[in-house]
Design goal:
Oligomer: single chain
Radius of gyration: 21 Å
Distance between the termini: 33 Å
Order of helices and strands: HHH
Helix content: over 70%
Shape: rod-shaped
Number of helices: 3
């Protein structure tokens, strides 16, 4: 599940950042200017926060679902 989510996350960020990359390529900006751009910093922060969200959310939701469905299963067996 995490592999699927991370693959989707990567494709979503690439799709969102493609405009920035085309702009940088079109203007042939120097490396130091590219590194110092606010847009690049924003994309890096978006990537890190999205990755943390996926990495922390998938196991958390899986654990909650296991408890909920496990509790329902034990209630059914009690009857």
């Amino acid at each position: 599940m995490m592999g699927t989510m991370s693959n989707t996350l990567i494709l979503a960020f690439v799709g969102g950042a493609i405009n920035t990359m085309i702009l940088i390529y079109a203007y042939s900006m120097p490396y130091l200017q590219i590194i110092n751009m606010y847009a690049i910093g924003i994309e890096v922060i978006r990537g890190i926060s999205g990755t943390l969200g996926i990495v922390l959310t998938v196991p958390l939701v899986s654990g909650i679902a296991a408890r909920v469905y496990g509790a329902k299963e034990s209630q059914i067996q009690d009857f």
